[in-house]
Amino acid sequence: MKSEIPLTPEQRLFAEEHHGLVYKFLQKKQLSIDEFYDVVVFAYLRSVRRFLTEPALKQYSFATIAWSSMNCALHNYYRSQKAQKHNALVLSLHTNPYEDSYTLEETIPAPNPYMRQLEEQLLLHDLAKRVSKQQMNIVRMKTCGYNDRDIARRQNTTTEHVQMLLKEVRRVLLDLCYG
């Protein structure tokens, strides 16, 4: 977000004196204060700074400058709301996107615990072909909830060695899954 220089005391006093313009603008445009105050107030404050620092603007009334700035801010707000990113098609899992089609919910298979168990067993079977017997024992202990220190004690090795073996197992697993 663009950082702005704070108003000087003179600019703050001027902004306070003419702040009613913001409410007149919103009322004239029939806009909700709750919804649109933040949209226009920053443009109003920029117009205060510009009016008091740019001598060329003195030929106009401050109300004209402020009104024009707030109009611009409002226009930019509406334009950003109409941008393509705000008008994306939203699909529900429960509705048909096209006539005579399935809902998205119907195209997603229901979780099947037996299939998941089979997939896990097949993955472990493939893993066992590619790692050492010691690594598979470590994997089995890890799946049973043992921590690295307990595994190292049961395997008569160091924690660092267990972690190195597990790192190699992870690499092989990633290769199996994504390779």
UniProtKB/TrEMBL annotation:
One of its GO terms (molecular function) is DNA-binding transcription factor activity. It comes from the Bacteria. InterPro entries: RNA_pol_sigma-70_dom, RNA_pol_sigma_r3/r4-like. GO terms for biological process: DNA-templated transcription initiation. This is RNA polymerase sigma-70 factor (ECF subfamily). It comes from Hungatella effluvii. The lineage of its organism: Bacteria, Bacillati, Bacillota, Clostridia, Lachnospirales.
